[in-house]
Amino acid sequence: AQTVTQSQPEMSVQEAETVTLSCTYDTSESDYYLFWYKQPPSRQMILVIRQEAYKQQNATENRFSVNFQKAAKSFSLKISDSQLGDAAMYFCAPWGTPLVFGKGTRLSVIA
Amino acid sequence: DTGVSQDPRHKITKRGQNVTFRCDPISEHNRLYWYRQTLGQGPEFLTYFQNEAQLEKSRLLSDRFSAERPKGSFSTLEIQRTEQGDSAMYLCASSLGPQGGFFGPGTRLTVL
User: Fold this and answer.
1) Nearest CB to B102: which of A33, A43, A47?
2) pLDDT, position B16
3) Which among A42, A47, A103 has CB closest to B100?
4) Which residues, 6 or more positions from B100, have their beta carbon under 8 angstroms from its beta carbon?
5) Which of A49, A53, A92, B61 lies deepest, with the highest CB count within 10 Å?
6) Is the Cβ of A32 closer than 8 Å to some Cβ of chain B?
7) Average pLDDT for B96-103
8) Phi, psi (5° rounding) for residue A86?
């Protein structure tokens, strides 16, 4: 069974600063994907970034990047130049078909 | 249409009634997933389809829950004899293989 741990229930960041959200997981699969999803107050789940486990290069999507440590089973999300619109719940999900989500990290952005 | 749609967006029902939700995935996506989310928690997997075949069901999916995807396109999730504990957001997602699910806006169910 897959497990996902997001150890930071809440985080806050000043606008324009950088914040890192952590995620660790356990899986027996060798080839998989990992995802970060954002859920704003509207509760629509939005795919933020995707990492393929076989790729050593960390994924980047505009201001969002990941630090993927496969051996350590760690998959953190870095948000650079934080904006007010980044405030949301963030969920880490390693792919297992189906997705298994962590409990989430609530990110607040302070103007 | 470029996204996953769900209908209705909100449903209020009385305990003991049956409810049915619909999900229309992104048209070329062969996989469709149902999740349930309660406040303060991440989404929990309920069931998933690859085309019209239901490949996996969570133990959360009691006998009162049934899902179908008759032609490999839209899907329905029915809850019979609803209970107050069924109150939650029901999320649908679709994907083309293991490429990450794109989620719909959800159906919020309130059981009185």
Assistant:
1) A47
2) 97
3) A47
4) A33, A35, A47, A50, A95
5) A92
6) yes
7) 79
8) -80, -10
Of A42, A98, A101, nearest to B42 by CB-CB distance is: A101
Which residues in chain A are contacts of B43 at CB distance < 8 A? 45, 91, 99, 101
Q: Is A33 on the interface with B (CB under 8 A)?
A: yes
Nearest to A75 by CA among A102, A104, A35: A35
Q: Which two tokens stand for residue A32?
A: 């998989």
d(CA A83, CA A110): 9
Q: How many CA atoms lie within 13 A of B64 on its CB side?
A: 13
